[in-house]
Specification:
The protein is an alpha+beta fold. Helix content is about 45%, strand content about 25%. A hairpin with a 6-residue loop joins strand 7 and strand 8. Helix 1 (about 10-35) packs antiparallel against helix 3 (about 65-85).
Length: about 140
């Protein structure tokens, strides 16, 4: 049996965009917080407290705490990986060969799978072949 893996292009692109956006957001937060926490003896505790206290200010007095950006970055990465995983579909193709018979000329030929409609290689008519033997 042969396994074929296909990716849906729109889902694959959306998943990659979400993952990259999440990684960029986490990199910005880590860059801003690491400068403050790296000079301390208790790095993880100071990093955690800095994420909860420090705000990133935007225009018009709007600011968000760094922990919100951290959570948003993690969520973007999780949703991106789920989207990437769901955009892939696996198919299995059977490796068996089938003997088909033309109802007009009664000639036989082998093919990789049974077909509903096919062209007879002997009389060149578009027919509905009969399956005579599976191997």
């Amino acid at each position: 049996m042969k396994k074929v893996l296909r990716r849906e292009k729109s889902g694959y692109a959306l998943g990659l965009i979400l993952c990259v956006a999440g990684l960029i957001l986490l990199a910005v937060v880590l860059w801003k917080a690491w400068l403050h926490a790296s000079v301390s003896q208790f790095v993880l505790e100071d990093l955690w407290s800095y994420l909860w206290t420090e705000q990133l200010d935007f225009a018009f007095g709007v600011g968000f705490k760094l922990i919100y950006f951290t959570m948003l970055g993690v969520l973007l990465i999780v949703f991106g990986t789920v989207t990437l995983a769901l955009s892939q579909k696996g198919f299995t193709l059977s490796g068996e060969t089938v003997m088909l018979t033309c109802p007009y000329c009664k000639n036989h030929w082998k093919t990789s799978r049974a077909k509903g409609w096919a062209e007879c290689p002997h009389c060149r008519q578009f027919i509905q072949p009969q399956v005579t033997k599976r191997s």
